[in-house]
Amino acid sequence: MNKNETGKDGELTVETEGGTRNVPFTNADYEISYDISESEFNDEMEKPSAYTGKRASGTIEAEGSKAELKALLMDDRGMPVEDIRIEIVGDEGGDRFTEVKLESFGREFPGGDKTTTEIPFQADKHRPINL
């Protein structure tokens, strides 16, 4: 355990016709949740349960204008592109999210501070890295 860990390195990866593009980001907040279902139809007094699914969602934030990020994530109609992957890696390993769907694309232009880009997402697939 690293009590002094201050953050994780993260990259948003997009597969394009021209190849793979990686854009680093500065902040990530995500959650992996599990669906649990109980069986109602059994002969025992107990109600056994089982995992029936998994969901991942979160938000990534990048500092600076990141104009290349907007161009990379959206098509010419302003819709999110397909084939987005997010990888977040720290001392204890990390997480890889694939089949990522963007929920929104937000920008903040504060008067005296850095511009930030905020991207909430949902991912259909999740896999731990280096457990």
Describe the structure.
The radius of gyration is 18 Å and the shape is elongated. The chain is mainly beta and 131 residues long. Strands 1, 2, 3, 4, 5, 6, 7 and 8 form an eight-stranded antiparallel sheet that branches. It is 5% helix and 58% strand. The protein is built from one helix and eight strands; from the N terminus they run ββββαββββ. The longest helix is centred in the middle third of the chain and has 7 residues, at 67-73. β5 (84-90) and β6 (93-102) form a beta hairpin. The protein has one helix spanning 67-73, and strands at 9-16, 19-25, 27-38, 49-63, 84-90, 93-102, 106-108, 116-129.
Distance between the termini: 13 Å
Q: Assign the structural class, choosing from mainly alpha, mainly beta, alpha/beta, alpha+beta, or little secondary structure.
A: mainly beta
Count the helices. How many?
1
Portion in strands = over 45%
For the largest beta-sheet, the strand count, sense and barrel status come to: 8 strands, antiparallel
Spatial shape = elongated
Order of helices and strands: EEEEHEEEE
Overall pLDDT level: 82
Q: Radius of gyration in whole Å, from Cα? A: 18 Å
Total beta-strand segments: 8
Q: Catalogue the unreliable spans.
A: none
Question: Helix proportion of residues, in percent?
Answer: under 10%
What distinguishing features does this structure have?
131 residues, mainly beta, 1 helix, eight-stranded antiparallel β-sheet, 8 strands
Kindly summarize this structure in a few lines.
The chain is 5% helix and 58% strand. It is built from one helix and eight strands.
